[in-house]
Amino acid sequence: MQAKKRYFIVLSAGACLVLLFYFGGLQVRATRNQSRREDRLRSPEQPWPHFSDNLQSFLPREQLANEDYNMHLSPRQKRDANTSLYKGKKCRMESCFDFSLCQRSGFKVYVYPQQKGEKISESYQNILSAIEGSRFYTSDPSQACLFVLSLDTLDRDQLSPQYVHNLKSKDLGFDIGQAMLAKASIGAENFRPHFDVSIPLFSKDHPRTGGERGFLKYNTIPPFRKYMLVFKGKRYLTGIGSDTRNALYHVHNAEDVVLLTTCKHGKDWQKHKDGRCGPEGAGLPCLAAACVPVMLSNGWELPFSEVIDWNTAAVIGDERLLLQIPSTVRSIHQDKILALRQQTQFLWEAYFSSVEKIVLTTLEIIQDRIFKHISRNSLIWNRHPGGLFVLPQYSAYLGDFPFYFAALGVKPSSRFTAVIHAVTPLISQSQPILKLLVAVSKSQYCAQIIVLWNCDKPLPAKHRWPATPVPVVVIEGENKVMSSRFQPYDTIVTDAILSLDEDTVLSTTEVDFAFTVWQSFPERIVGYPARSHFWDSNKERWGYTSKWTNDYSMVLTGAAIYHRYYHYLYTNYLPVSLKNMVDQLANCEDILMNFLVSAVTKLPPIKVTQKKQYKETMMGQSSRASRWADPDHFAQRQTCMNKFASWFGTMPLIHSQMRLDPILFKDQVSILRKKYRDIERL
């Protein structure tokens, strides 16, 4: 069906070099093939004379792209192939993209600066802003392997308010040469597989970041609604797609099949207006509203079809069988409807709810093409949490990610690595960090202890540390900043990390119980100190509270267990601006980690037992560890909450009222029947 053509151009770096190498390679191959054919005609007695230089073919270079050119193309096709209109139509990544720059500097994207006097629509500006705010962006063109034009070609509908006029003398009608094309509503005939990218059509009001979550909050069983089949859009009274959209009127029954079409399309729409023209208006996006898309898209490439399996989220039909669609939809079993509806919510939140996600998905698809040896597979793209949060550079094995344990039948790690963040010098043998070392080392699940030394003083001598049954490794933090506690250190060999502040007070029993809980929820943060967020309607901003209430949305990393992949994600996914803020304030790193994990999992953390106090009260008020007593500490955390929410584009934190306690906890039974009996005495 016809839709507004929205697209932006992505140019491969060094296009001229690629062009020369590409055609040069074709000439060599053509000559070699010719030599093979000649070899078959030679007789053993009379070999052809050998020439040191290969003879050059007189065929045009375009014709050399196909060895059997003369056999399969008509004279008209041959003429058309030599025109600029067809230039680059056979482009694929292997022939029109310079991989060498990406191999040298990694996958970096450069946006050409906007020229003076050139106009850019709000939608296209959002696209460029999303690129410039991503981890792929570089301001140095010599480091880039992908280039994006600042020319706004997003909407080429001349009647659209987003249409940019007077793009100089460029004919955007449209010879793209060897450039990639990221376009909405792209026809399969003109789509170059694994080179172009089909993107979704979005309005100018589409959120730049974040976006609303899907509307499916609870699974309604059976999953039936008042309306079975709904359509709201333009009829296209004349031109391409008009026949199918005009036929929608015959399917409409005004009961459970409601198909409304407006005729306001084109300047002369009133000349063709009739009684079937419905009111104009825009409905909610189909995916966001948990509606199952029924797609009649003969000859059109579906959005992100290279990675998304639309058969798991949509009903795909044939335009020629339009009148059979209602009966087909009615025949779908309710279990299938529920599964389709759930998948629409995942796809919406993972790839379509904001301009930023659309842009990042496009870039990630291109990156996967370049680095095929670590590219994401279909399971990653089509299963929670989706391709944007699963960085293949971390591991090629899905069992190394906590999200796929259940699907693969992988058991969570049986041991953990404790990482203790130390910021004060080791002066006394009675300091909390030494007590903590002994308690943690006695855990039956502890594999090793890492002391991250972020103190300004030199490392203590080895004999200052207590003897423990597990190895204790002391490493210096990178630049002695807060974010260094979440670095993906190679010395961490277990999947599970027990993150601790140096003044945390935990018993061996508490450590054991928290770890056994984490083994049942390996994708979440599990721990003791809980905090919460709220919306302050008076100040119109997010607030942070440490009050003891019946719900929480954060578990602080001063005493928490989580999967080590989150260290990698924290370091490589989050922008430098947020990490710099954390380092400058020496605060909020625990809040940022909770934001990240909740954004990935769409789930709250898990608090264990009712312990309120987890800090050692004897810490000196002048030490860096006593930052909790700093009057600015709380205000800084309020500021962090809003800064983080702004970058994520939404509030990812989720409230929970669940607390997990040991079996028989506080029950009036014999203490000998309780496995974690020591917890009740604390």
TrEMBL record:
Family as reported in the entry's similarity comment: Belongs to the glycosyltransferase 47 family.
Domain Glycosyl transferase per the UniProt entry, residue ranges: 416-665
Cofactor requirements of the protein: Mn(2+)
Topology term for the membrane: Single-pass type II membrane protein
Keyword Endoplasmic reticulum attributed: yes
Name of the protein in question: Exostosin glycosyltransferase 1b
Annotated organism of origin: Erpetoichthys calabaricus
Alphabetized Gene3D superfamilies for the sequence: Spore Coat Polysaccharide Biosynthesis Protein SpsA, Chain A (3.90.550.10)
Compartments in which it is found: Endoplasmic reticulum membrane
UniProt keyword terms in alphabetical order: Disulfide bond, Endoplasmic reticulum, Glycoprotein, Glycosyltransferase, Manganese, Membrane, Metal-binding, Signal-anchor, Transferase, Transmembrane, Transmembrane helix
Domain Exostosin GT47: 170-279, 286-332
UniProt GO cellular component terms: endoplasmic reticulum membrane; Golgi apparatus
Superkingdom per UniProt: Eukaryota
GO process terms (BP): heparan sulfate proteoglycan biosynthetic process; ossification
Reactions that this protein is recorded to catalyse: 3-O-{[(1->4)-beta-D-GlcA-(1->4)-alpha-D-GlcNAc](n)-(1->4)-beta-D-GlcA-(1->3)-beta-D-Gal-(1->3)-beta-D-Gal-(1->4)-beta-D-Xyl}-L-seryl-[protein] + UDP-N-acetyl-alpha-D-glucosamine = 3-O-{alpha-D-GlcNAc-[(1->4)-beta-D-GlcA-(1->4)-alpha-D-GlcNAc](n)-(1->4)-beta-D-GlcA-(1->3)-beta-D-Gal-(1->3)-beta-D-Gal-(1->4)-beta-D-Xyl}-L-seryl-[protein] + UDP + H(+); 3-O-{alpha-D-GlcNAc-[(1->4)-beta-D-GlcA-(1->4)-alpha-D-GlcNAc](n)-(1->4)-beta-D-GlcA-(1->3)-beta-D-Gal-(1->3)-beta-D-Gal-(1->4)-beta-D-Xyl}-L-seryl-[protein] + UDP-alpha-D-glucuronate = 3-O-{[(1->4)-beta-D-GlcA-(1->4)-alpha-D-GlcNAc](n+1)-(1->4)-beta-D-GlcA-(1->3)-beta-D-Gal-(1->3)-beta-D-Gal-(1->4)-beta-D-Xyl}-L-seryl-[protein] + UDP + H(+)
SUPFAM superfamilies listed in its UniProt record: Nucleotide-diphospho-sugar transferases (SSF53448)
Upper classification of the organism: Eukaryota, Metazoa, Chordata, Craniata, Vertebrata
